[in-house]
Amino acid sequence: MKERFRLSPQTALVLDAFLERPRSWRYGYDISRDTGLKSGTLYPILIRLADHELVETRWETTESGKPPRHMYRLTPEGIRSARAQLRDYGPRKSSMVVLREAKI
Amino acid sequence: MSPVRDVARRVLHFVVRQAPPRTRSWGEAMIGEMDHIDDEWDALLWALGGTLALCRCSLIEHLRNLRTLLAEEVSAQTKATHLIKPILSGVGVAVVILIISMLTLTSLQRTSWVEPSQVRLAQLLFAVVIPDGLCLFAALALWRPRRRLASGILAAGAALGAHSIIFFVA
C-alpha cells in the first residue's frame, strides 16, 4: 500500500459504505445512492482509493444490449485500512452524519 | 434512447476520448454505469458529474505528466553538466599549461641565453615536450581520483601536441 491519504468526510462515507458489505462487489451508482455522493465526487474518490490499492475493480458483463459495468470492492488491505482510518476518524464522525443526512 | 440521455452520453463520450489513457477507463466505467440508470434526468446528472470528474482527473494527470517530464529534463541537463564540466576544466588546464610554456619560450627568445642554432630545439621543447609532458603527468596523477578532468587534460594535450608536431614537421 502507498502512503496514508487524507481522509475527507466524503471518502469516509465511501469507505463506510464499502464496510457495510466488505467483500461484496458494488456498482458506482449503488455506492452513489448509499452515500448520497454525486458521480463527480464519487469517482475521484474511487480513483484515489484504487491508486492506493485499497479498492479493486473488475468489469461485469450484463444482459445483452447494455454495456459492461465496472464494479468495486475493498481489498483485504483496504478493509484493514478503512477500519483503522474510520476508527481514527471517530471524533469527526458528526460531519459524516451531516453529509449523509444532507445527501451531498 | 431519449434525447436527454443521448446528449448526456455524447458529452461523456467526448470527454472520455480527450482524457489520458489512465483516466479513460474510469470514463468508460461512468458511461457503462449511466446506461443502467433508469431515470433520464438522473442519467444526465450522472453524466455531467462524470464529465466534471473526468476533466478534473485529466487535468491532474496532465499536470503530473508535465511535472515528470520537466523533472526528467532537469535531471538530464544536470547529468550532462556533471559529465561535461570536468572535461572542459581539463581542457582549460591543458591550455593554461601551453600558454605558460609558450610565454616562457617567448621570454627566452628575447634574451641572449638561446643561441640562434638552438631556437628550433627550444621551440620543440617548450611547445611540445614540456607542455605535453606536464599534461601527461597531470592526467596520470589525476586518473584515479578525477578521471573526467584527467581525460580533458589528456585530450587537449594530445590535440595541442599533434598541432605543434604538424607545425614543426611542415
Task: Explain what this protein looks like in three dimensions.
The complex is a heterodimer of chains A (104) and B (170). By secondary structure, chain A is of the alpha+beta class. Chain A is 54% helix and 13% strand. Chain A is built from 5 helices and 3 strands. In chain A, α1 (9-20) crosses α5 (93-102). Chain A is globular. Chain B folds into 2 domains: 3-67, no CATH class; 76-169. Chain B contains 5 helices and no strands. In chain B, α1 (3-18) runs parallel beside α3. The relative contact order of chain B is 0.09. The interface between A and B is medium-sized, with 21 and 23 residues.
Keywords:
heterodimer, A: 104 residues, alpha+beta, Arc Repressor Mutant, subunit A, three-stranded antiparallel β-sheet, 5 helices, globular, B: 170 residues, mainly alpha, 2 domains, rod-shaped
Can you tell me the overall shape of chain A?
A: globular
Helical percent range of chain A? 40-55%
Mean pLDDT of chain A: 83
Please compute the radius of gyration of chain B using only Cα atoms.
36 Å
Number of strands of chain A: 3
Number of helices of chain B: 5
* Helix fraction of chain B by DSSP (H/I, runs of at least 4): over 70%
Mean pLDDT of chain B: 85
**Spatial order of strands in the largest sheet of chain A:** 1-3-2
Brief summary:
The complex is a heterodimer of chains A (104) and B (170). With 104 residues, chain A is of the alpha+beta class.
List the helices and strands and how they pair.
The complex is a heterodimer of chains A (104) and B (170).
Chain A: H1 9-20, E1 26-27, H2 28-35, H3 39-51, E2 55-60, E3 69-74, H4 76-88, H5 93-102
Helix pairs in contact in A: 1-4, 1-5
Chain B: H1 3-18, H2 21-34, H3 40-110, H4 119-142, H5 147-169
Helix pairs in contact in B: 1-2, 1-3, 2-3, 3-4, 3-5, 4-5
